[in-house]
Design goal:
2 domains, globular, 42% helix, 169 residues, 14% strand, 6 helices, alpha+beta
Length: 169
């Protein structure tokens, strides 16, 4: 796993600029290899961007959203900036899915053959399985119960917990 502390300020600034210009994770991964001679897996690149607090922009979605706003304002006159701001009263706060954050992750001291890292995960519903990161940097899950598929919220919680546990090592 790559440590963000190995980058100097100039390198961090370049990565931030690339993301601001609309570069996606694969683009950042390629440019880091080409321009900085730092070879990372896609997952390491993803973790690096998260560690640095860099937001990946989706220019296509931003353009579509911008066009939609322009189209919705046609014929309605000018809208005030204050009218466009949301307040806490405007937001509906939904409770998190039950157990979405209740995920337990362990890491094997010695990774299983053929993978870079492995361990076990237990989801809030009590189901579990073996997780692994293969040599291409892809995260996989081999559930204990055949056909088991955790909820999206549980997968997201698992990924966050896995990142936290791996960073603590």
């Amino acid at each position: 796993m790559f440590d963000a502390k190995k980058l100097n300020e100039e390198q961090v600034q370049k990565i931030t600029e690339w993301a601001a210009d609309g570069a996606q994770l694969a683009d950042i991964q390629k440019r880091m290899e080409d321009e900085m001679e730092i070879r990372l897996t896609y997952m390491d690149t993803r973790f690096l961007v998260l560690d640095l607090g860099i937001e990946i922009r989706n220019i296509v979605e931003e353009q579509a959203a911008s066009d939609e706003v322009e189209n919705s304002n046609d014929g309605q006159g000018e809208s005030s900036a204050a009218g466009d701001q949301l307040t806490e009263d405007d937001l509906e706060i939904l409770p998190p899915e039950q157990g979405a954050e209740n995920v337990s992750v362990t890491v094997d001291e010695i990774a299983r053959p053929g993978v870079m890292a492995s361990g076990r995960v237990t989801f809030a519903d009590g189901q579990g399985g073996m997780w692994y990161v293969d040599e291409m940097g892809r995260l996989g899950l081999d559930p204990d119960t055949e056909g088991y598929r955790p909820a999206e919220e549980s997968i997201a919680a698992f990924q966050r917990e896995l990142q936290r546990v791996m960073e603590a090592r």
